[in-house]
């Protein structure tokens, strides 16, 4: 989220919070695709991380992008910490360790999504090249220690950095040393949201396995294929994970709200200043817990929107659904991740097929799979068969969904072309992480330095 909202509309009831989520429902013809991707910035001279301040820096990249694109700077205590497209169609934001993120515009088809990503990367390279900066597209920082990793001057991150060690063992690694690709998708009603939420929650471990690309930590193999996936197993379990309530047959907007109300807050923003609120839940906030601590202590819709953005379930509900399970990866995967989910969720027949496939998957089974995938990826077992076999079934459903959508480019090719990187994973029976490990033990001669050249944007 590039900019925290400041909507001053007062919140007076829980029903208003539920109505806010429900207001995201829209006709199917208005469904859009919003893709986000993060990448690590590094100096090509020595593969070191790029600091925020300086002549060659993250700040310089943002200023250069602002001049090149005409996007509006997003400021925090006098520092530029993101950019916003003036009409609201896209943004650039910073993750805590300087990971550079494009939050794409809401687009109608995957051809537009892939074009958007390629254009962004081309412009970014144009700005970065004179500064000696390039970008790495994988899921976990392969070389830098936590101490070596830069810190971005973003107020919400200072609060999170203090809080994370209190609620889990890997929250700081999540913040500073991981990258992801996400896609945001729409729903038409509460029932449609429920179906999509339940299918995508159950299949999120499969996405983690298919996109596994974080096998290195501090210059060595870490024993995992998705270090990022493992990190999310103990980041802040009050606000992250599988979300048991979503497995209920009658799950709805109100259930998500009730869960969110009990999660501790991170902050509220008043007059541009961030107040640490990690000691209260949103429900306590609504009941007056901050009265006497801050002058404007009554909750607003801006506070609620910001709180929703600090919840981290594997599928996050706002006025759309966010698919959060995948590691970052090379540019072709920026197109493959939304293709995978659009094929499953935006075609009625595909959604029904995915729903039927996963209908009786229990919370306990999916949790066990989620726990196995970081180390085993597609070699993990589910109901006595390999996750490879499940992946083949699911990918076939997605491909057929994309073909039925029949959104063609100028050459008459449909969106299923964007699944090619996942087809390659299944054909080789090897994830990107396993490819990198093979290179590490072979051509790379047990060094992670070549990853910066081989997997750069």
What is the β-strand count?
18
Regions with little confidence, pLDDT below 50 for 5+ residues: none
| CATH classification class | Alpha Beta
> Largest sheet at a glance?
10 strands, antiparallel
Structural class: alpha+beta
What portion of the residues fall into strands of 2 or more residues?
Answer: 15-25%
CATH architecture: 2-Layer Sandwich
Distance between the termini: 22 Å
CATH fold assignment: Creatine Kinase, Chain A, domain 2
Estimate the mean pLDDT confidence. Answer: 97
Shape: globular
Care to describe what's here?
The chain starts with 13 loop residues before the first helix and ends with a helix. Helix 3 runs antiparallel to helix 11 (331-345) and helix 11 (331-345) crosses helix 14 (387-405). It has helices spanning 14-22, 58-69, 110-128, 155-167, 171-177, 190-210, 227-231, 253-261, 282-286, 301-308, 331-345, 348-358, 363-376, 387-405, 420-428, 432-441, 449-454, and strands at residues 33-43, 48-49, 72-76, 79-84, 91-94, 100-103, 133-136, 180-185, 216-217, 220-221, 240-241, 267-270, 273-276, 312-313, 315-317, 321-327, 381-382, 385-386. The longest helix has 21 residues, at 190-210. Strand 3 (72-76) and strand 4 form a beta hairpin. 42% of the residues lie in helices and 16% in strands. The protein contains 17 helices and 18 strands. The model has no long low-confidence stretch (mean pLDDT 97). The strands form five sheets. Strands 1, 2, 3, 4, 5, 6, 7, 8, 15 and 16 form a ten-stranded antiparallel β-sheet that branches. It is an alpha+beta fold and 457 residues long. It has a single domain, classed as Creatine Kinase, Chain A, domain 2, CATH 3.30.590.
């Amino acid at each position: 989220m590039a900019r925290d909202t400041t909507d001053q509309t007062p919140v007076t009831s829980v029903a208003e919070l539920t109505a806010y989520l429900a207001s995201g429902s829209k006709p199917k013809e208005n469904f859009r695709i919003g893709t986000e991707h993060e990448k690590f910035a590094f100096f090509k001279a020595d593969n070191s991380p790029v600091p925020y301040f300086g002549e060659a820096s993250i700040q310089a990249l943002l200023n250069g992008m602002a001049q090149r694109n005409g996007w509006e700077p997003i400021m925090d205590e006098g520092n530029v910490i993101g950019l916003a497209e003036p009409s609201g169609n896209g943004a650039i934001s910073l993750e805590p360790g300087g990971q550079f993120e494009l939050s794409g515009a809401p687009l109608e088809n995957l051809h537009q999504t892939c074009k958007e990503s390629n254009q962004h990367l081309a412009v970014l390279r144009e700005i970065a090249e004179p500064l000696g900066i390039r970008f790495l597209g994988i899921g976990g920082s392969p070389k830098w220690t936590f101490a070596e990793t830069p810190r971005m001057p973003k107020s919400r991150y200072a609060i999170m950095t203090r809080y994370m060690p209190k609620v889990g063992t890997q929250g700081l690694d999540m913040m500073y040393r991981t990258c992801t690709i996400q896609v945001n998708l729409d729903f038409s009603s509460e029932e449609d949201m429920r179906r999509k939420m339940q299918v995508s929650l159950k299949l999120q471990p499969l996405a983690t396995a298919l996109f596994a690309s974080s096998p290195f930590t501090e210059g060595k193999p870490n024993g995992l294929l998705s270090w990022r996936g493992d990190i999310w197993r103990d980041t802040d379990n009050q606000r992250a994970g599988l979300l048991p309530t979503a497995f209920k047959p009658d799950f709805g907007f109100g259930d998500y709200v009730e869960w969110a109300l009990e999660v501790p807050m991170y902050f509220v923003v008043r007059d541009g200043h961030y107040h640490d609120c990690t000691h209260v839940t949103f429900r306590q906030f609504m009941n007056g817990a901050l009265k006497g601590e801050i002058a404007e202590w009554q909750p607003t819709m801006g506070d609620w929107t910001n709180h929703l953005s600090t919840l981290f379930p594997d599928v996050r509900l706002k006025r759309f659904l966010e698919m959060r399970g995948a590691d970052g990866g090379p540019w072709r995967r920026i197109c493959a991740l939304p293709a995978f989910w659009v094929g499953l969720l935006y075609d009625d027949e595909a959604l029904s097929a995915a729903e039927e496939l996963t209908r009786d998957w229990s919370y306990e089974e999916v949790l066990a799979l989620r726990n196995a995938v970081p180390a085993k990826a597609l070699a993990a077992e589910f109901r006595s068969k390999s996750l490879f076999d499940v992946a083949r079934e699911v990918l076939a459903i997605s491909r057929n969904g994309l073909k039925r959508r029949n959104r063609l480019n100028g050459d008459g090719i449909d969106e299923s072309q964007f699944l090619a990187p996942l087809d390659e994973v299944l054909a080789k029976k090897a994830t990107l992480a396993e490819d990198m490990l093979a290179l590490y033990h072979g051509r790379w001669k047990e060094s992670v330095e070549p990853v910066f050249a081989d997997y750069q944007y």
